Amino acid sequence: MKVLSMIQPWASLFVLGETQYETRSWNTKYRGPLAIHTSKKIDKTATSQDTIKAMLNNHGLTNDTLTAGSIIAVCSLENCLKVTENNQSWAILEDGTIVSGNDYFLGDYREGNYAWIVKDMKMLDRYIPAKGQLGLWEYDL
User: Fold this and answer.
1) Is residue 54 a part of any domain in this protein?
2) Which domain holds residue 67?
3) What three-state secondary structure class fits 80?
4) Residue 138 has what pLDDT?
5) Does residue 26 fall inside a structural domain?
């Protein structure tokens, strides 16, 4: 299965539905099953922000309870859409979708970046420890 590594808290916030998009500076032609992996790094600057703390708290999580170095969820990658316009509080994707609110706040919507669109996100009952890699990588679930 293809796997995408993400830094915490962004991985958990994506998996828990606080944002519907994952943003990347790169596109992929791959579509299909995708596992979400939490890298060993935790962005402590982000987890110290009140808004991020509150979102995590809504799910019973704190900086100290975030899982790192594990595959935590599976979903299906449906599309990657280029960001065509950024207006500092909202953005427009190449299909005309307007991204705002938490979706905008939790992503990197610089023009030229990509919003990865997934469906059927499912948190795993048992997390799978894994080292992780850059880009999309393979793991035999």
Assistant:
1) yes
2) 2-82+114-133
3) strand
4) 93
5) yes
Question: pTM for this structure?
Answer: 0.92
In order along the chain (141 residues), what is the average pLDDT of each group of 10 residues?
96 96 97 96 92 95 92 98 97 98 96 98 96 89 72
Position 141, amino acid: L
What is the phi/psi pair of residue 134, to 5°? -80, 155
- Long-range pairs for 50-57: beta carbons < 8 A, 24 or more residues apart: 51/105, 52/9, 52/13, 55/9, 55/13, 55/18, 55/102, 56/9, 56/12, 56/13
Q: What local confidence, expressed as pLDDT, does residue 61 receive?
A: 94
Is residue 43, in this structure, part of any structural domain at all? yes
Structural domain total, the chain? 1
36 close to 85: Cβ distance less than 8 angstroms: no
Q: Which stretch of DSSP H or E encloses residue 96? A: none
CATH number, domain at 27?
Answer: 2.30.130.30
Residue with the two structure tokens 């850059």:
134
